[in-house]
Amino acid sequence: MSHLIIPNQIFFEDVCERIRMKRSVRIRITGRSMEPFLKDGKDFITVSALPTRYRFKKGDLLLFVYGNHHVVHRLHRIHGQTLYMKGDHQNRWEIIHPEDVRGWVSCVQFANGRRIQARSLLWKLYALRSRLNRMRKNFNHIIKRILGL
Fold first, then answer.
1. pLDDT tens figures, 84-134
2. What is the dihedral of CA 81, 116, 10, 6, to 10 degrees?
3. At 126, is the secondary structure helix, strand, or coil?
4. What domain range is 66 assigned to?
5. What are phi and psi of 5, to 5 degrees?
6. CATH number of the CATH domain containing 63
7. Dihedral sign for Cα atoms in the order 25, 29, 34, 36
């Protein structure tokens, strides 16, 4: 099977156009910023247009523009019209606004074929696991600093 490599800007212009036409788009994950939830090159996401009465909710994965890049990260905090995004495997915040959002991840398909729908109980459990994993890493980092390791 051959692969076609398309520059990200051209690829995401097409993705965003399809989403504007209310079509969902299936995308293979690239990058490690959402590990361990999503694996680089193995898992797929389905990005859909925001539903008519969509309300941003902590834990949602959103496709958004940040700087000159299209990014899919988790929504961690909402303060008025400000959305605080971060990859599960990152420490850096991306602060965006609703107009930066191009779509939301409505479904994930893992490499083993298992699919989970956004906002389902299983989805919430994966999001919780990611938060607990991040807390554990932060705790370990603090302990090492205190002990001088």
1. 999 988 889 999 999 999 999 999 999 999 999 998 998 888 878 777 877
2. 150
3. helix
4. 8-147
5. -100, 120
6. 2.10.109.10
7. positive
